[in-house]
TrEMBL record:
This is NACHT, LRR and PYD domains-containing protein 14. Signal peptide: none annotated. Residues 86-235 form the NACHT domain. InterPro entries: NACHT_NTPase, P-loop_NTPase.
Amino acid sequence: MAAIYSPTRRSEVYKDLLVRQLKEKYNHLCNGVQTIPYIRDRLHSVKKIFVQGGIEYLAGSSWIPLKSHHDVFSNPNIQGKRRILVAGAGYGKSTLTLQFAYDWCYSVQESYLKDVEILILLRLRQLGGVKSIYRAIKQFILPRSSQFNESDLESVIESSSSVVVILHGFDEYPDENSIPMSDIMKMLMAPVFRHFEVLLTTRYMPKKYPPETKVIRLTGFDDRARDEYIRKAVASEVVGVADRIRRRLHENPVLEDLCQVPLFFVMFAHMSHESKTFQTFKTVTRLFQYMVTCLHSHGTNKMGTGNAQQHLMFEKDHRRLDKVAFEGLSEKYHRIVWKRQEMCEKLGKDFYEHYVRIGILIEENVLGNVDRQRSPSTYQYQKEVRFYHRIFCEWYAAHYFAKYAVGMDAYHLITILQCIDPFDLQYFYHFVCGLNSSAVGSIMECVKKNKGGEKFAIMCILEQDRHDESTLDAVSYLCSKPIEFKPEDTKLLQRYTAQLLEIAVKNELFISSVWLKNCYSTVDFSGGNFIKLKSNFLLPVLTTLKKLWIREDGRKITATEMTCILLYSSKCEWLEELNLVNCLLPQSFMAEYLTDLLSRNVKVLWYTALRRPTYSLSIVSGVVKHKYGGRVLTSEEYEMEVEFFRQEYRPLETTLP
């Protein structure tokens, strides 16, 4: 670029020009949000459709809520140069990154970003083979006519007083393990670009990252967020729409839990608003199947009936697309973007164009063949194609595998699945189990050795409408391990876990132990027929349960609560132990109605803050005794326990009515 000013003035001019070009790109992105695949004639501004969902940061081993997305950069507890924002598929990472770009472009008053000189937003799926961040900016953000070269960009950005870099979609980044290391990986792992503030978004945590990195997560939509989205994006001027959609959710509890995932709720809300019919759904597979059917139906109606037969054939027979999707996900480094010509050749031109029209496949113009030795006039835009969302890729890949799995022995199935990470591609496994019940055993073998694999397996098993012998074998295996409920669990996971336990009870399969970890709320006072969790989910009586653990760090349990817990326990016919951990129990309680526990020799143990079973409870007399020796706990000893409890849990101490 020509130098016509003093060095200082030239630097300011270049910086102003770069900011204008960045904002031009981000404005285009922020004003072209497509809420669901087929709505192309009504693109939205991110300002119109962005809704504040749940967001938390990690402090030690606890997740602490943030008030808004602005806190990601401004909250004093998560200050630093490196942040990772992690969330599952469909939880709104893409929309959030666009909202950050909007905040910067329009200097939103509440936003930390209003005072940032340079904001760089890069989509990592596009950066395969691009080692330099400055080349990435040149190729994927700046207009083709921009006269900035990589050296100019480096000079301007390095001289800026504040730079924020948002790297979106690390789980889709093709060069994670490339050699030599790209600038993207250097930002994460090496002490370079340290003056940049970096926010990385991803489905899963990178294998390596600096210890000072702050971790944030998205937790999805609650009722308030869902209502706000309906008001802002679905039918702001139509009376009764929000009530109708809310009523449909409440009539179908599983669907309501599924709609904690923003992508599912957004698609459901728009489709439910436009459709007079309504179905109930018990699994993710059935819900997604309904959504895909709606996309095809809407596309056929919009394009007319001239090619209705061909459209129906494309909807029913998608084997070639299934194969493309599966091959993309099963490669060592997932492939989620294809050249348009390549995809046309694989699918057939008519099929390809149909899936583009209905919105399942998305075309993007990407500037390619950038080379520092070439002039800007030689740069070429190329059309690339991807799925509207990666969950759609998992849907079609699951169809391929579900058909492929028929008749194949478990060894070969497990070998194939080893290259598809269940925690990165969890919906693939959901869909496979929902489409082909015979695959459950192989999937169990694939995931059960992984940390957290039991919970994942629970979700997969409950994707089935029927429970055959292989399903019951899987239930029996899972129930032989400790089953946990935690506050960070989604409501859907809690519901599926409870359903798993109910299947075990119905089929008289023993449940080794259930842990309620800091998620117990209360027991049904009227009859002890269920435990209420803090999520408001109700856990019924589990007659085949062997051991119940209730851990409530820093909580005081009242005498009335204690009686109700014992009453619930008395209804668990196979119970051998009730264990209460890290909570403060009353010194005495009413127990005259609970002789059934004594007759069955059920142990009731209290693990104090010392993390050992110090005391047992006398069910006959309703007092606390020393576990060893059976001596009744004196008032002085109890007061010592109370004081120790207060010192240990001073920040956490709570009492629930």
